[in-house]
Structures are given as structure tokens and as C-alpha cells.
Specification:
Layout: E1 3-8, E2 14-18, E3 37-39
Antiparallel strand pairs: 1-2, 1-3
């Protein structure tokens, strides 16, 4: 079950809620009890392991010349 972020249109409170399905009705505001809440656009990231590089090797993923600052 995913967490969704909501904002209350009445009191502007922001909160998270664990929702069983994407189509479930929005929960009521925890601060004022209003049903006028909107789901916020949430951003999440999924990382993958970077390939191993020798120290000082260029990663070719940025426009910087020389060695990659993230290769330490």
C-alpha cells in the first residue's frame, strides 16, 4: 500500500496517508476534518548501483572534463 501526500483546500494543512488502492476516496483532513483535500504530486527516486570505476576515471555522464567528482 502506497503513501500519498495530500493538501487540505480549506486549512492548507499537508499530510500523508496510507491508501489501499489508487482509486480510494481521499481521506479527510487530519487538522480540520474537511473532505476538500487534493492529492499532491509526489516525487520519488529509484536508484541503481553505479558501475564500479577506478579512482580518477571519468564517468562520461557529465560535461566536466577530467575526473568525475563522484568517483571517490
Amino acid at each position: 500500500m502506497p503513501f500519498y501526500e495530500y493538501r487540505c483546500e480549506k486549512c492548507q494543512a499537508e499530510f500523508e496517508a496510507l491508501v489501499k488502492t489508487m482509486d480510494a476516496p481521499a481521506p479527510k483532513c487530519r487538522q480540520c476534518g474537511s473532505g476538500r483535500v487534493v492529492k499532491k504530486l509526489s516525487v520519488f527516486g529509484v536508484g541503481a548501483a553505479a558501475p564500479a570505476r577506478e579512482k580518477g576515471a571519468s564517468c562520461q555522464s557529465c560535461q566536466q572534463g577530467g575526473s568525475c567528482p563522484m568517483a571517490h
